Input
Amino acid sequence: MAGLPARLRRWTYLTHRWCGVAGCLLMALWFASGVVMLFVGYPKLTPWDRVRALPALQAGAWLAPGQALAGMDATRLALNAASGQPRYIVRRRDGSLATVDPVSGAVQTTVDGEAALRAARLFLPGAAAHDEGAVWEDRWTHSGGLNPHRPLHLVQMDDDAHTLLYVSSRTAEVVMQAPRAQRWWNFAGAWLHWLYVFKSQPTDPVWTWTVIALSSACVLVACSGIAVGLWRWRFSRPYKSGSHSPFAPGWMRWHHVLGLSFAAITLTWIFSGLMSMNPLGVFSAAQRPDLARYAGATPGERRLEATPQAILQALSREGFQAVELEWKNLAGRPFVLARDAGDHTRLVSADGNRLAVAAQWPREVLEQAAAALLPAPAIAFDTLRGYDAYYYRRDPEAMMGGSERKLPVLRASFGDPGQTQAYIDLRTGQVELSADRAQRIGRWLFSFLHSWDLGGMLAAGWLRDAVLVLLSLGGFALSASGIVIACRRLGKKAAAR
Output
């Protein structure tokens, strides 16, 4: 390093000095909010919480699904009683949602506040519910997955957690829950960490590029700081003061020592945070699985025509109490996916003149269907009964904590240029995850570096949390010392002027 041109060294010093003035404040906020996020997640509604609150379906004199659709081009068809009354829920090809009364066949595209209150009371029984009006989007509902449900009814519950519920104005389903303590902690956690103060809509390129630019600048601060710290540190021969650092005791020496001690983790976390934004789409899949071909048909085109009464009776004979029925297809084969309040599933399909109920798909059926996912051939199949480095579960507090990721799962490996791997749930037939080479690289550069989420690490539990907190405190101390130095330097500049 001693042979580097003096001009390059000077620019490295100046870059770290002046970019660090603002960068240290931002990095301190990231470290502090990251500790909060380790224990308090962003508000979400997990699939198991959603079905837990649904009332059990009681067979009635209902229209068959084909009669309820009445020619609608449906890409999704389900039946539940989220608001206390059974309703078919229809997603049209344009993405819009509607409900159909299973008795009269009346189509409804919006639901009122009273239906939202009924859904909220069923979701949290025993708690009083208060209609707080409607909102298109707020700080807890940025997710693009909520777009078909907007505007959202706000319902404040008088439960112990003072939960705020968001109810779809299209289907009367609860789509988000946010307890008061979680909301308050998120102001110091995810909302601050993800810089949501700059985000105004679900897809916001201004916010995206703001985060990318700030993260890139902080990576530059960290890299230049490592270089400067190593240049100034004497590893073999101390300075006249006896210290290996040229700085007198005080904030500059602390910053120097902390910087070398926590340089690697600081750079790692800032860089992996940048990677989470998928800059320039470097981790985007070259070719995504064709789920429409995999299904073979939409419920609007082909479906199991058995009545809900017959399906519920078949499930009841197997001791299964369904809270939701969903009409689906697999390789053009119609079936119904039933869920109960414990988030268990059953498959209902036609077997001659009777309905057959199964706990999971035969492996050979899924292997045949998987061939339609990609134009490239499937070169290998294996059944996983344990998680691997890509298909795994996280605690609900984590960013991916809302993914069910059940086992066993069928892993299909394809011979496409990206060597795509698809993970298919044997119980439902749904493709739970797919990842090509670019996405797998992104998993290591973001999730692993940022969250330490290998199986052994996650299994360490509190020990992993303790190490992450200690390292975060070190990064925060490094950033805080930089803030003090920056304030002093700016103060001197202002006084000189």
Summary: The longest strand covers residues 322-330. The chain has three domains: 6-40+199-283+463-496, 47-191, 366-435.
